[in-house]
């Protein structure tokens, strides 16, 4: 499953400007389509971008770049989403076994004790923009990494949120009537899908 820029921005918390800057400077290049528009991100890219946006909330980009360089120097060359990066005070670490982490920013290689933060939870960006929880951006919308490649769906179903949002978006079908088209989709879930869809589209404005 590939994620277009507006949805990648919404799900990761990285602004569209940040996505472009990080793509152009090699901080994170989308693994699906990176050569020319439309740029498309994978779910692994979304997780990595979300981690970067979470770190960027209170760490300078230069320190984040240094951390990514250190990962490569340590032969940790898998996709960035494969590693659990954590905040170590004013530094950044990579989480290892148990509660131990290795500093990869200010004092590379120094082992310390760190708490694994959940970047899937709600957080605020450096510009105080609230980022929805990744796995449940709305009560009626969920993200299951093993379902449809991580594409947001109506909670408890395999129905993509955007199909339901398109159905009720122009007002021709009421949320209360969506069950006639998609059995099992409640009116509230339809409203949640529409609200999430509008927030995705609003990130482009």
UniProtKB/TrEMBL annotation:
Protein name in the entry: Uncharacterized protein (DUF433 family)
- Which residue intervals define the domain HTH merR-type in the entry? 8-67
Q: Cross-referenced SUPFAM superfamilies, in alphabetical order?
A: Homeodomain-like (SSF46689), Putative DNA-binding domain (SSF46955)
| One GO term (biological process) | regulation of DNA-templated transcription
Q: Which domain of life is it from?
A: Bacteria
The organism named in the record is Microcella alkalica
Q: Name one Pfam family in it.
A: DUF433
One annotated GO molecular function is: DNA binding
Entry's transmembrane regions: none
Please give the InterPro entries that the UniProt record associates with this protein.
Answer: DNA-bd_dom_put_sf (IPR009061), DUF433 (IPR007367), Homeodomain-like_sf (IPR009057), MerR-type_HTH_dom (IPR000551), WH-like_DNA-bd_sf (IPR036388)
């Amino acid at each position: 499953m590939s994620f277009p820029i507006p949805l990648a921005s919404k799900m990761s918390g990285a602004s569209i400007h940040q996505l472009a800057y990080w793509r152009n400077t090699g901080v994170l290049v989308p693994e699906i389509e990176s050569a020319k528009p439309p740029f498309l991100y994978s779910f692994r890219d979304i997780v990595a971008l979300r981690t970067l946006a979470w770190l960027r909330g209170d760490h300078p980009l230069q320190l984040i770049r240094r951390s990514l360089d250190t990962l490569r120097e340590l032969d940790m060359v898998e996709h960035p989403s494969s590693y659990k990066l954590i905040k170590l005070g004013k530094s950044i670490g990579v989480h290892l076994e148990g509660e131990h982490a290795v500093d990869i920013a200010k004092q590379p290689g120094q082992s310390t004790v760190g708490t694994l933060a959940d970047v899937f939870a709600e957080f605020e960006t450096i510009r105080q923009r609230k980022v929805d929880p990744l796995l449940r951006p709305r009560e009626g919308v969920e993200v299951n990494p093993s379902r449809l490649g991580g594409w947001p769906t109506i909670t408890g179903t395999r129905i993509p949120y955007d199909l339901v949002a398109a159905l009720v978006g122009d007002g021709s079908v009421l949320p209360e009537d969506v069950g006639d088209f998609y059995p099992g989709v409640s009116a509230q879930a339809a409203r949640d899908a529409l609200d999430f869809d509008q927030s995705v589209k609003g990130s482009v404005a």
